[in-house]
Amino acid sequence: MTADRRMSPEISPDAVARPSGGYGGGPTTTPAVPVGNGAAALAARDAMMGSPDFRSSLRILLVDDDRTLREGCASVLQIDGYNVTTTGRGDEALELLKRRKFDIILVDLYMTPVTGMDILRGALESHRETIVIVMTGNPSVSTSIEALRAGAWDYLPKPFSAQHMQILLGRASHAVMVARETREFRVSLAEQHGNSDRITLLGVSPAFRQAVELARKVASTDASVMISGESGTGKELIAQFIHRHSRRASRKLVPINCAALPEPLLESEMFGHRKGAFTGADRDKPGLLETANGGTLFLDELTEMSHPLQAKLLRVLQDGVVRRVGSEQQDAVVDVRFISATNREPQDAVNAGVLREDLFYRLRVVPIKLPPLRKRLEDIPLLANHFLAHYWERHRPAGDAAPKLTDSCIEFLRSRPWRGNVRELQNVIEHVAVIAEPGQSIRPEDIPVYEDAVAHPPADTVSAAIMTDAYHSAKDKLVAHFEKEYLQRLVVRAGGNMSRAARLANIDRTTLYRLMEKHGFRRDELSGTLE
After folding, report:
1. Is residue 176 part of a domain?
2. pLDDT per position as a tens digit, 8-31
3. What is the pTM of this model?
4. pLDDT tens digits for range 514-531
5. 383 and 357, same structural domain?
6. CA 213 to CA 207: how far, in whole Å?
7. Distance of CA 260 to CAs 131, 269, 299, 305, 324, Å?
8. Of 25, 244, 293, 519, which residue is the least packed, with the fewest Cβ within 10 Å?
């Protein structure tokens, strides 16, 4: 018997009525859901589990080589009305998966010779939408994360109470129900509108396409996703894409900006509150976690959330139970998929103590990093033309000939630093669409320029110079870098016209030519394509 077997709890049919806690006399490795006054938690669990007819329609496969555990769990689930098949052998489980489709699979992670990971992979290869819950008496971060990244829906640490298992199965059952609704929703939507519900993510650069492909792969699972990237890179659009292509697409995507609200208001918005919980709370109000039940909660700027709220959110991630502000009981059991986003480097936030490490690992099952626009130069023509067409159609009368971006204008756009990333480009092009004449050829001088964005070198260049040289040497390098960058962009903006470039820079032509000579530029080089 392995160490995992020695930790296995003993679950019997009467365990449903027992209070929380481990079975077999030992403490639980993960606390089971507390009963509170009992009625509210059980009622919420029963509502999550759905009707008896629905539960009986679910096919559940329970795989564990511990006979006592296997039979105890099966008895509890059968009393709840589930259609349960059991086996103690991994090879037999793989054969069953070839012959039948199971909605939910409960599988022990540490079996031999066929492991729980083997069964997890086999199940998802046969039916991608199958929900797999791994049971483990060794719930280390590395093994749990490995299972979740391989496609596991959740994990159940041993020993566990019957109630903990029931609530987790209730959430999984709800996810199956939502997935069925989503399939019907997509069929109906396709019949009515074709593919109009699709979100298009524009870009051909390798780094961006890699992020999109990862989003596409993870969308069909319920794994938590953490999206990082600078402000304006499109983190919320990726979250929408994942939700729209998930089994939860027929339910809500609920966004919440953790940086936009003070802590008390953010707690009330997320978790809801009871009447009288604070001044002005004149009625019970459900929070966004309850609103997102069955769907997806998008936590934008996660690292701005306070530590107490992070701890409270972690409890929801672990057991799905929501307690409203001012409540002394469990008010709801929710089934929510979490997508979070931050413009900071997540690991740096953990190292700095800003983000709890345990929450980080639960939310960052699949990390997606979006590149800044300055590293997607090949995408700028595609994005700029798309935005121009979109805003021209929005702001102008039908039939007016759309303006066009000239080659020199495209090169000017490619030369800018775009600190605001795609969002900044979008706003600039909307400005152009609003003021342009029908059929106009848009030139560099028609693009609104913010001189502070043009005049300063990228932050990474500044940092490198400061960190590697003494003060005066670093200063000389930065000045030279500024002059070179400024000349390149100035002449492109002027379309290669030196007189106009001198006027734009508010210097005489002699000074301009002297600066060009200093940095070894010729006029034909500056008016050509810049990389």
Report:
1. yes
2. 334 433 333 322 333 222 323 333
3. 0.59
4. 888 887 776 554 444 333
5. no
6. 10
7. 35, 12, 11, 10, 20
8. 25
